[in-house]
Design goal:
The complex is a heterodimer of chains A (490) and B (420). Helices cover 52% and strands 6% of the residues of chain A. Chain A contains 27 helices and eight strands. Chain A starts with a helix and ends in a 7-residue tail after the last helix. Helix content of chain B is 28%, strand content 22%. Classes of the chains: A mainly alpha (490), B alpha/beta (420). Bound molecules: flavin-adenine dinucleotide (FAD) and iron/sulfur cluster (2 copies).
Chain lengths: 490, 420
Amino acid sequence: MTGEDTQDSSDGGAQDGADDPDVETDGGAVGPGDGRDDAGFAPAEPTAGEDFEPVQVFPDEETMDLRPGADDCYKCSTCDVNCPVAEVDDDFPGPKFQGPEQWRLKQNEEDYDVDESITSCSNCMRCDDACPSGVPLSQMHNEARGEFVREEMSLLSPKYWRNRILANYRVSAQVASVVPRLANAAMNFGPARWVMEKTLGVTSEREFPEFAEQTFREWWTARGGAAASRQNAREARQRRGDPVDADRRVAYFHGCYANYNTPEVAKALVRVYEHFGYELVVPEQRCSGTPMFANGMLSDARRDAEVNVSSLADLVDRGYDAVCSCTSCSMAIRQEYPELFDFEGTGEVAGSTFEALEYLRINEDLRGELADASVDGFDDLAYHAPCHARNQGLSRQAVELFRELDGVAVEDVGDSCSGISGTYGWKAEKYDVSMEIGEEMFEHMEDAPGETGLTECPTCSMQMEHGTGYEIRHPLEVIEEALVDDRVGV
Amino acid sequence: MAIESDVLVIGGGLAGLTAGISAAREGAHVRLITHKQSTLRQASGLVDVLGYVDGEPVADPFAAVPDLPADHPYRIVGESGVREGLALFDDVTDYRGDHTDRNALVPTHGGTVKPTARYPASAAAGLASDDRDALLVGFETLVDFDAPLAADHLGAAGAPFAADGATVRFPGDLRPDAKVTRYAHLLDENRPVDVDGRRLPACEALAERVRPHLDGHERVGFPAVLGDDDPAAVRAALAAELGADVFEVPMGPPSLPGLRLADRLYDALDEAGASLETGVPVVDHEGGDRIERVLVDRKGATVPYAADQYVLATGGLVGKGVESDRGGVREPVFDCRVPHPADRYDWFEDGVFGDHAFARFGVDPDGELRPTDERGDPEFENVRAAGSVLGGYDFPAEKSGAGVSLATGRSAGVLATEAL
Ligand SMILES: Cc1cc2nc3c(=O)[nH]c(=O)nc-3n(C[C@H](O)[C@H](O)[C@H](O)COP(=O)(O)OP(=O)(O)OC[C@H]3O[C@@H](n4cnc5c(N)ncnc54)[C@H](O)[C@@H]3O)c2cc1C
Ligand code: SF4
Ligand code: SF4
C-alpha cells in the first residue's frame, strides 16, 4: 500500500509536472496574469495532502444506517428480474438478497458473515434503477462487498491480489504507458497470459487493451495545456459571435482509460468543447473508483476519491463544472461518492459533474448544430448504452442526437447489459457468465447494419469488440468529426 | 439553456406511455422522462376498464360510464375518450377483447374470475366464458400459484366448466426462488434439460411432466411464465406436444405479461419518434401561470428541461406521484392541490375494502385534464394530468386502473398537442 502511494505521488510529479512551475498550463485555473487567480490555489496539487492515511470506509459500523432503505423493500422482486447476473447464473441469489435481506441478517444475527455470493454482483446498478420503492441497493451491495473483503478474504490469497491488481488498473497502466510498445507486446504474450490465468485467475481469453504511445496528459501538456485551450476557446467564441470574455470553463475528468488507452476520445472531447467556446483545465486526478467499488476495495477507492474530490471541489468553488467522457466515472462521482464518502465538497462536486454530451445538450444547441452537419468515414453504428449511462438517464441521448446527423445511422442494440462490468469479465471464474450476459448484445450487434460499434464505456467497448470483432467508437469522436474544423485547436 | 421539446411527459407508466405515443403520432416532438420502472411490471398485464361499480360486477363498462360520479376521470374524457384510449392500445398491441363492449372473464392465479376489457393473446384460451374443461398446472417451485386450490376456487365460483389442478416439477431443476424470467428463457430457448434420465428440449420435457395429468382436458393453463421473447411460439410448442390449447394464468408481481406489455409500449413510443430518458426524476418546476421549465435530478446535478406543454403521469401512491405523510397529501412535482380531508382519521374506513378516501387521492382536473386549485381554476395553463395521479376514482375497488391510464393518457397527449 505504501509502495503504491509513493509511486502515485512521485509519478504525479514526473508525469503531470507537479513540481514544475508550468503546471498551471496543466491544471490551468491559475497562472500569472490570470485575473481569476486566488492566492495559493494550485489545482494540480491535491489538497488532500501527501500525508493522507487511507482508512476504512466504515470505521464505525453503526454510522451507515441503511434501515430506512431496507424497510422500504416490499419484496416485489422487480430488482431480481432486472439483474443480468441472476438471469444467467442460477446460483446467484440476486439483488434483493444481497441488499435488504442480507443487511437485515447482518443487523440481527450476531455472527452473520456476509455471503460470498456478493462477489458475484458486478455492480452494474441495474437493480437500483429498477426498484420502484427507492431501496438503495447498490449502496448496500458496496457496503456488503467492502465488509466481505475486509473480514473474510485472506490478504494472502491470489484472488485478493488479483482483484486488487485489476481494481488498481491505473497503477499498472501508469507503468505500462512508460514503455507502451513493450507493454503491449508483453501483456498479450501467450505464455505470460497462461501464467496470469494459472496463478492469478485473470482470463487468458481476452486481449489486453493497447496502451497509447503518448498519453492524453502528455499530449495536453505538449499542446500548451490550459493556456492553449483558453486561446482556442476565445477564437472559437469570436468565430461563433459569442462574447469573447464569456465565462465558459470546464474541468475535464478523463479517468484512466482515456488517458492511457484511448487518448483519441479525450482529444475529441477537448476539440469539441473548444469548438463551443469552452476553455478546459485538466486537474490532478486518480481513478474514479469504479473498479475498486466493484471489488470491495473500499480503502483504495477512498484514497483516490479523496484526491479527486479535493481537486474538483476547488475548481467547482471557482465556478467550473466537471465533465467526464466515461459514464462509470460520472456515475461514481455523482452517486457513489455521496453515498459512501463525506469529504468536504463531495456533494458540490457531484452536483457540478456531468457526462460530456449531456453537458453540451444542456448548455448548447447541440441538436441543432448536428442537424446541420454531416460526417464522413463512419460506418453505420451499433450503439450499446452502458448500464451506468442508463442509470444516469443517458441511455438514449447518442441515438437521439445522431438521428438527424447526415452520413451515419445509429441503431440502438437493445437494453441488455454487455456483461463485462469493468473488471468482472476479466476474472477467469466469471468469464463465461460475462460472455453469456453479453450474448444478447452480440446478437443484436450482428443483426444491426454496419460493423462498427458505439458506446461511452471503455470496458463495454472491450466486450463489444471481443464478442463481435467490430471496431468501437465513442460518441464524442462522431461529434468531433461532424463539428470540428480541422484547422482549429489541433 | 435547457433540453427542449414540444411536449414533455413526466412518468413512464401506462398513462405516460399512452400520452407520449398519442402526442408523437399527432406530430409533436415528445420527450418522456421517467424515474423508476412503471407499475406495469407488477400489474397482471390485464387491462381493466371498469369491473365493478359499488361492489357489483359490470358487464358493459361503456354503458356504465354515464352513471359514474361527475368527477370520475371517465366522465371527464367521456365514453368516446375511453373508446379512443382503447383504440390506440389495440393499435399498438396484440391484445384481445376488442370484438365486444362486454367485459371478458379471466381466471386469476387465486382462482377467482376477473372482469377485464382487454387481455393478452396468451390468456385467450383460458377465458371463463369458454365451457371446455380445463387443467391448471402449477410448479413446485412457484408457490404463488397453487393449481389444485385455484381449480377448486373456480369450481366454487360457479365457472361453467370443470377445472382440475396438478402440481408438477418444472424441468431443469431451477432453484426454489428462481426468477420468473428464468422459466421463461428456458422455454424460449427450448434448451435441452435432463428429465428422468433423459435429455429433452425444455418444452417437450415440460409437456411430458404434464401429460399424465391431462386426462382428456381440452385446454391447459400454466402460470404466466411461458416465454419472454416469443411467448406465442412457446405456447404453440406446448400445445402441439399436449394436443390441447394452452393458456397463461396472470400472476402477481413481478409479472411477465406486464413486462412484455411495457416492452411493447416502449417500442411503440420509439416507433412514434419520441425521445426517452429513464432512471432520473423530475424534482421541481419554474414558472408562474405557465410552466417554463422543470428540473431533473441526475444523480445530484440538476438539469433543466423546457417544453411548451407538460403531461404529469407520475402515478399514484405506489408510483410516487402522490405523497402522503402525517401532515397531508401532496403532488410533489408541481405541488398541485390534492383534495383530502383535513383530519387524517377521515382518510380511511374501518373495513379493508371500505370506501377509503385515500384510494381516491389525486389531483382534481378540469375539463381539459388540467389540475385545479381551490377555486377550480387550472393551476397552470400548460400542465395536464393522466393516470393514477388523478383523483376521483378507486382503481383497486373498481378494477379500472389500466383503463383510466389509457383514456386519460390519450386525451392528455392529444390536448397537449392541440395546444401547441
Ligand atoms: C401491484 C399492482 C397490480 C395492478 N394490477 C392491475 C390489473 O390487474 N389491471 C389493471 O387494469 N390495473 C392494475 N393495476 C393498476 C395499474 O397498473 C395502474 O393503475 C396504472 O398502470 C397506472 O399507470 P400510471 O402510468 O398512472 O402510473 P405508474 O405505472 O405508477 O407510473 C408512474 C411512473 O412515473 C414515474 N415517476 C413518478 N414520479 C416521477 C418523477 N418525479 N419524475 C419522473 N418520473 C416519475 C414512476 O417512476 C413510474 O414509472 C395494478 C397496480 C399495481 C400497483
Ligand atoms: S448491481 Fe447488477 S449484478 Fe449486482 S445485484 Fe444489482 S443488478 Fe445484479
Ligand atoms: S425492487 Fe425494491 S422493493 Fe422490490 S424486492 Fe427489490 S429492493 Fe425490494
